[in-house]
Amino acid sequence: MIQVINRAIDIVEYIAQDPDKPKALGDIADAVGLNHGTCANILKTLVSRDFIEQIGAKKGYILGAKAYALTGNDNYRKDIVEAATDEMDRLTTLLNENTLLAALKGNQRIVLLRTFSEHDLQVRTPDQKDAYNTASGRLLLAFHTDAELVKYTARYGLPTADIWTEAASPGQFQQAIDLIRREELAIQTTTGRQVVGLAVPVRKADRVVASLSIYMPEYRYMVTDKARVVQELRNTANRISARLA
Questions:
Q1: Domains and their CATH numbers in the chain
Q2: How many C-beta neighbours within 10 Å does residue 53 have?
């Protein structure tokens, strides 16, 4: 048991040397002196506990949120947050609506950064929420590969009709995903709360690494210039992506 703990710590320390640069399984195993099978098993446990994050199938590993939380370090996804901060402030000033930068962890949408409007009536959203039940989460899921989505739905199931009415069956789910991919836009109206959220992708190189969203009470959305909101949201996401390139 002690040996396994030491090996896990060795892996975390190796990845922490350059926490935002994905490390391949083979490189990690060689660096800490483990065979690939043993290293893969330890990594699987560390990923399940959020100390390590797997970027994608065969795309490498970075430090996870729990590794940062242990020390009170707020540098999780620091590169994305730094690229987005000024742009999100600008967007909020321009439209006077709340904006949110988010990523996906398991089946949860997690907030990386948020800005607030000056309206008296503020829409609040949790730091962590079921991905199916947010515009950001739906957008991020849509940019998984088909193979990744098969694994995702096998593990977490399809959304229930009360959460995502248009995607409650396998056929509907695929249609909803295809629409988001084509439009590069997810729109959600939260049933019962009268809140509308819109989300677009943020890319680093050719990979979607986060979502940028804007959300507001439904009554304000109904009277706003919707085309302008979407265009400004896209423009901001594109500028953030350019900073990450």
A1: 2-70 (1.10.10.10), 78-244 (3.30.450.40)
A2: 23
